[in-house]
């Protein structure tokens, strides 16, 4: 079975390549495919004729998306439409990545797949539009929403991630302020990649939430990073209002892996264990 990965050198993409070793993989980077170009995307998919496409490409710098709304829609909505159209034309299925930021965070309890999305920033709106394109263009698709991703590719300069940012600030002896009023389920890309691998070998198509188990604020996440690393930097909690980021973010975007549980595949470990595994993995780098 031919599996074509778009964004194969990104955080999640590079772990997908690792966990799918042994499968018939076609790992493509941005140099090989530009999803904003419909004709180019068609040409690439026609050339390789995969059975499944995994689309990891996104423009996901949330504050930048607010200032560059047209690029957000070009990549996260129209680009996804191009990929879905090309998949439809060659008759292959698509696994597409989406985000917890399709929700406004007002529910106060974990979001299930049947909850109505209501994004509150340009990134979330553009990602939700991408989901809708996939849903209306294809029958055989998996849309996977996840949150707070961190993986080893982020530690090697490819975009970075929250854990790496915390460790760098601590190393530099900086005063660190982290918001304590935004709650999520941080997710290790290795765990997510294993679950995606399992899911695409089923015919359980549809919408899935996939995150590590449990929840924490970004501040609690930072505390755990430092505790597990034996560091005690100058860390203080702050509020979203005081932090003053450009984009509005949901105060509570914990996802419940309800659809995964329903098909007997939700064995995602607690986020604390996953974080410890990541910190071990990066020691070897
Ligand atoms: N990071 C998070 O915390 C998070 C949370 C929830 C959901 N997600 C979703 O999960 C997915 C993967 O995230 P990630 O952290 O692995 O992202 P990432 O590390 O930035 O990887 C994205 C990959 O896509 C490529 N790409 C970007 N624009 C492209 C385009 N127009 N055409 C073709 N390739 C393009 C990038 O290449 P270049 O870098 O060379 O452009 C990169 O290799 C995304 O859909 C994202 O929205 C992420």
Structural write-up:
This protein is α/β, with parallel strands linked by helices and 285 residues long. 44% of the residues lie in helices and 16% in strands. It starts with a strand and ends with a helix. The model has no long low-confidence stretch (mean pLDDT 96). The structure holds NADP nicotinamide-adenine-dinucleotide phosphate. Residues 6-7, 9-13, 29-30, 33-36, 56-58, 60, 75, 79, 97, 99, 146-149, 158-159 line the site of NADP nicotinamide-adenine-dinucleotide phosphate.
Terminus-to-terminus distance: 32 Å
Helix coverage percent of residues? 40-55%
Shape label = globular
Order of helices and strands: EHEHEHHEHEEHHEEEHEEHEHHH
Mean of residue pLDDT? 96
Secondary-structure blueprint of this entry?
Layout: E1 2-6, H1 11-19, E2 24-28, H2 38-48, E3 52-55, H3 62-67, H4 69-90, E4 93-99, H5 122-137, E5 141-146, E6 149-150, H6 152-155, H7 162-171, E7 176-179, E8 183-184, E9 187-188, H8 189-200, E10 206-209, E11 216-217, H9 218-229, E12 235-238, H10 240-243, H11 258-262, H12 271-283
Parallel strand pairs: 1-2, 1-3, 3-4, 4-5, 5-10, 6-9, 7-12
Antiparallel strand pairs: 8-11
The structure holds NADP nicotinamide-adenine-dinucleotide phosphate (NAP).
NADP nicotinamide-adenine-dinucleotide phosphate is lined by residues 6-7, 9-13, 29-30, 33-36, 56-58, 60, 75, 79, 97, 99, 146-149, 158-159.
């Amino acid at each position: 079975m031919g599996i074509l990965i778009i964004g194969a050198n990104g955080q999640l993409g590079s772990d997908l390549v690792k966990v799918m070793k042994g499968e018939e993989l076609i790992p493509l980077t941005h140099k090989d495919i530009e999803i904003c170009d419909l004709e180019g995307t068609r040409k690439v998919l026609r050339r390789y004729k995969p059975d499944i496409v995994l689309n990891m490409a996104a423009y996901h710098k949330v504050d930048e998306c607010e200032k560059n709304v047209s690029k957000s829609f070009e990549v996260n909505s129209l680009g996804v439409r191009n990929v879905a159209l090309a998949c439809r034309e060659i008759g292959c299925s698509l696994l597409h990545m989406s985000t917890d930021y399709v929700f406004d965070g007002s529910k106060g309890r974990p979001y299930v797949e049947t909850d109505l999305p209501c994004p509150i920033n340009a990134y979330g709106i553009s990602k939700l539009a991408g989901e809708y394109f996939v849903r209306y263009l294809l029958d055989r698709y998996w849309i996977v929403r996840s949150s707070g991703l961190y993986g080893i590719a982020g530690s090697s300069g490819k975009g970075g991630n929250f854990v790496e940012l915390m460790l760098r600030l601590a190393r530099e002896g900086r005063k660190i302020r982290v918001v304590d009023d935004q709650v999520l389920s941080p997710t290790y890309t290795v765990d997510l990649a294993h679950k995606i691998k399992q899911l695409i070998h089923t015919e359980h198509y549809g919408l899935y939430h996939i995150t590590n188990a449990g929840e924490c604020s970004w501040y609690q996440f930072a505390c755990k990073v430092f505790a597990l690393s034996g560091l005690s930097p100058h860390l203080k909690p702050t509020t979203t209002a005081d932090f003053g980021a450009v984009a509005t973010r949901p105060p509570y975007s914990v996802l419940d892996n309800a659809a995964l549980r329903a098909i007997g595949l939700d064995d995602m470990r607690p986020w604390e264990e996953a974080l410890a595994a990541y910190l071990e993995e990066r020691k070897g780098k």
